[in-house]
Amino acid sequence: MLRPVRPGVGLQIAMAALPVGLALWAASLAGGALAAAAKAPPAAASLVDVIRLNGVIAPATGRYVVRGIRDAERDRAEALLIEMDTPGGLLKSMDDITRAMINTDVPTVVYVYPSGSRAASAGVFITYAATIAAMAPTTHLGAAHPVTAGGGSPGGEDKTLMTKITNDSVAGIRGLAVRRGRNAAWAEKAVRESVSITETEALALHVIDLVAVSPRDLLAKIDGREVQTPSGKRRLHTRSARTVEIPMDLTEQFLALLSDPNVGFILMTMAIYGIIFELSNPGSVFPGVIGGLALILALASFAVLEVNVAGLLLIGFSLILFIADIKVPSHGILTAGGIVSFVIGSLLLTERQAPFLRISLALIFGMAALTGGFFAFAVGAGLRAQRRKVQTGREGLVGAIGVARTQLSPEGTVFVQGEIWSADSLDGVIAAGARVRVARVEGLRLQVNREEASAS
Questions:
Q1: Tens digits of residue pLDDT in 325-342
Q2: 164 given a catalytic annotation
Q3: Which of 15, 170, 387, 408 fits a 20 to 30 Å CA distance from 322?
Q4: Are residues 323 and 402 in the same domain?
């Protein structure tokens, strides 16, 4: 028997089922979203390229940084991290680096790292050119007064030239400070007065943007920062970024080696030895080839360092004196003059450069001592050879002992030094088989005495 349903009961049932349906629909949507997320490829992590700028700022490092910026642009990197520890370097190379840094769309992050590092001289300009500047604990920055063109007297044209270079450097670093919103007044003091500061002072004076204990800590701290680039504002996403180091290539490593004044000096010394060996032993070829290559590389190194021409000429003059001492018996006087010229020329060669671009004094005196010892041995051997009895030729026969092959009355033949000679006796008749001594040589005939007579 069917019971009639009360009015409104169906509506009540439908209303009761509605939450369950909504829950099932929401669960279905969530499952679909999870499945789609599982099938979708993971989002690519952001990339930060890293270059390490250690040592003197020279053409090799300039080329390295410019290439690093170009690679970061190609990789669409989030930023280019430049870990730096430098005593400074050449103005031209520094200008190449700062120009590339302020004209790239890739944010550049200069980080004076690790602890104990410094950013001196040219390093200050590079720090100011960075989009973000940071330092590690126990690092310092400053002393940016230009010195590469110095070395002259404090007055006259040298002073005028230094004033021009200093004013130009001040204008350049103030421009960088204004562009990056950093302390321009301190930057000018760093150039004019060579002041230096620690990382805490740099942060307080707004010379840098932050202090970080490690590269990963630095990337976490700059994450989310908005920076200005030539193409507009950009927000950094670096907290979990993947870092890729860009090393120096072979060309840059070779140029960096040539930029070392000590390497250039060693190459110059090798060139001197090679040329001397070739001239003293014509036709040996190998010493001449090595000496020529070393000379070309040394001149390339000195061209990079902008050496003192007077020092280079003195070293060349020492080479002339060394060669002359081989050809002319001066009993070592020319060698002594060559060593003095070599030492003075070596000291003058880089005297206009900053201390870290000068040739080591220990290397200069060590090479001078080695050269002096070599020529003392060579000249001594020559003098000993001059005093030694002649062993070959006509002069070598005088005093030689032989045997009469025939009777000498007074003419005959003798056997001396493995050969048969026509001979004349100076002691009357000498029997065949008797021992004889050569008294002198006349053309192809020997004048001989009895050995007993010679001994008596």
A1: 777 766 778 888 889 999
A2: yes
A3: 387
A4: no
